[in-house]
């Protein structure tokens, strides 16, 4: 397989612009390599891992390390957590969708400094739609500012679920699409009014990038016990998962939690 070569960016003393540039280069290379991939089946690694997960990780993680970053990856584990800046990466969030040929899977990257998310990049690898956020500077989709819908009433809401609830609790419509990173970003841009995880919880790499994008777009995002999103990597357990609730208004968020 031909590999598209790109140069790494020196991001020691990281600025968001350098992080976004590196993320864009990585995503372009992943998309280029996936475009000629013939076998999207299972890999020989951990359960649920596909060949495209491995390919994407083998492209992304070495470049992040070469740029001076620590890395926490779903596919290859943590390295360099003592670094000042750490990238949390899900090389392909929505791997099953990718295997099925459904255009709803993404590269998710989050830059963490001193246990705080400072920049995020999420790109739909099938369509190229790209979301970014920088701490304190808002969120963008394809270069345009985004904000949440602001819907407050559950009966007017369109929710997106990770796993399905056992009973209807008042929403107008719902979707279940299979990529938490993209689902959350579509709450950030107002397409959906809220995200609810009804499953066994999400790992940090599933939601890290999208969580900052949601916050910067005006969403309220917590775990199911109202705890804020944490990026304390030194205390991270690889198996730890959290159920998340995200909504485009405080009122809707509180209603979902109460129900």
Descriptive notes:
The protein is built from six helices and 13 strands. With 259 residues, it is an alpha+beta fold. It folds into two domains: 130 residues, Fructose-1,6-Bisphosphatase, subunit A, domain 1 (Fructose-1,6-Bisphosphatase, Chain A, domain 1), CATH 3.30.540; 105 residues, D-Maltodextrin-Binding Protein, domain 2, CATH 3.40.190.80. The strands form two sheets. Strands 2-1-3-4-5-6-7-8 form an eight-stranded mixed sheet, sandwiched between helices. Strands 10-9-11-13-12 form a five-stranded mixed sheet, with helices on both faces. A hairpin with a 4-residue loop joins strand 6 and strand 7. The protein is globular, with a radius of gyration of 17 Å. It starts with 15 loop residues before the first helix and ends with a helix. The N terminus is likely disordered.
Give the tags.
alpha+beta; 24% strand; five-stranded mixed sheet; globular; 6 helices; 259 residues; 13 strands; Fructose-1,6-Bisphosphatase, Chain A, domain 1; D-Maltodextrin-Binding Protein, domain 2
Q: What's the Cα radius of gyration? A: 17 Å
Q: What is the count of structural domains?
A: 2
Distance between the termini: 50 Å
- Helix share bin: 25-40%
Shape: globular
Task: Kindly estimate the percentage of residues that lie in beta strands according to DSSP.
Answer: 15-25%
**Named CATH topology of the largest domain:** Fructose-1,6-Bisphosphatase, Chain A, domain 1
| Largest beta-sheet details | 8 strands, mixed
Number of helices: 6
Mean of residue pLDDT? 91
Secondary-structure-based class equals alpha+beta
Give, in spatial order, the strands making up the sheet with the most strands. Answer: 2-1-3-4-5-6-7-8
Provide the CATH architecture of the largest domain: 2-Layer Sandwich
Strands, count? 13
**Secondary-structure element series:** HHEEEHEEEEEEEHEHEEH
- State the name of the first-level CATH class of the largest domain: Alpha Beta
Looking at this structure, what is the CATH superfamily of the largest domain?
A: Fructose-1,6-Bisphosphatase, subunit A, domain 1
Uncertain spans, ≥5 residues at pLDDT below 50? Answer: 1-12
């Amino acid at each position: 397989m031909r590999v598209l070569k790109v140069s790494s960016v020196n991001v020691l003393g990281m600025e968001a612009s350098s992080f976004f540039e590196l993320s864009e280069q990585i995503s372009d290379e992943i998309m280029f390599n996936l475009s000629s991939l013939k076998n999207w089946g299972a890999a020989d690694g951990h359960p649920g891992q596909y060949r495209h997960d491995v390919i994407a990780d083998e492209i992304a993680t070495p470049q992040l390390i070469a740029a001076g970053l620590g890395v926490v990856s779903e596919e290859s584990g943590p390295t360099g957590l003592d670094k000042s800046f750490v990238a949390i990466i899900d090389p392909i969030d929505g791997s099953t969708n990718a295997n099925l040929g459904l255009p709803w899977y993404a590269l998710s990257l989050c830059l963490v400094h001193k246990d705080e998310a400072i920049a995020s990049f999420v790109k739909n690898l099938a369509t190229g739609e790209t979301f970014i956020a920088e701490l304190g500077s808002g969120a963008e989709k394809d270069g345009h500012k985004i904000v949440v819908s602001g819907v407050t009433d559950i009966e007017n809401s369109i929710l997106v679920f990770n796993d399905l609830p056992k009973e209807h609790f008042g929403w107008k419509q719902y979707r279940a699409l299979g990529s938490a990173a993209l689902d959350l970003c579509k709450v950030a841009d107002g397409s959906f009014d809220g995200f609810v995880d009804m499953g066994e919880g999400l790992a940090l790499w599933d939601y890290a990038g999208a969580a900052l994008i949601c916050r910067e777009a005006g969403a309220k995002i917590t775990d199911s016990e109202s705890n804020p999103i944490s990026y304390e990597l030194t205390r991270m357990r690889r198996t730890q998962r959290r159920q998340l609730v995200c909504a485009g208004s405080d009122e809707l968020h509180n209603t979902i939690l109460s129900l």
